[in-house]
Amino acid sequence: MKVFYSDHYTIDLPEGHRFPMRKYRMLREELVRRKIIDETQLVSPELAGLEDVMLAHTSRYVHGVLNGTLAPLEQRRIGFPWSKALVARSLATVGGCIASSYAALEDGLSGNLAGGTHHAMRDAGEGFCVFNDIAIATLRLMREEHVKRVAIVDLDVHQGNGNSEILGGRDDVYILSVHGAKNYPFRRVPSTVDVDLPDGTGDDEYMRVVRRELEPVLAFQPDIVYYQCGVDPLHADSLGRLSLTHDGLRERDAYVLETFRSRDIPVMLALGGGYATPIEETIEAQCNLYAVAMEASRRYRR
Asked: Does the global pTM surpass 0.85?
């Protein structure tokens, strides 16, 4: 199983910024320290090219990001101040998703230690999302005719409005989003299926929903599944509002991977959100995810 990571994923932010940027480097280091993965599995992706990014975004927006010429309100909507490092981070994240997509088609399962930037829309970014990595990778795989049908299983606690704004309404893309009913974003774009969960939803009810909603995804017969495996449904997450335990998240991830890999459907892991207090709780949940993924990779080798 290949795991994609770039030093570009972590950039400096102003003092006191609420986004826990250090979590990407922390996760990479902890995965290796715990021997969940080894250094030989880590691959540094190339930066995405302009042609790729333009598959999902307008020329106006893309050049505004690359050149730092977005209006101040547009930049604030993204949530990060503009910098050359932010541009490199955004392109590296997309590059990691594209490379991981090809690796999933080849090996059955792969992951990117960033990404899942599902709030980025065609002509705007928001919610700490600049370019929509899953949408870009989906459109590239389709353009090159590597796949005909794509499913996005988005179990991040926030609704994937950007995924749906770019890819919604297509017969060849199925988008499932299971998220907190009273959480961000407050203006949503309908997915193929949206499930709103009440505050405080715990392990049992959450898993009942996941089991129910994966059946139509299977019936869709996707050629690849993008699994937006955010760990922000965790009870300790400062932005989550749900009440899953670490065991519940581990059960979720094992069930999703078993569902698709047992049927030889490739899965690409997009990291998604995680904002626990302390941030070590997020790292713990993400390490559990990759421990489950490594077991699935061994069990269902291509």
From this structure: yes
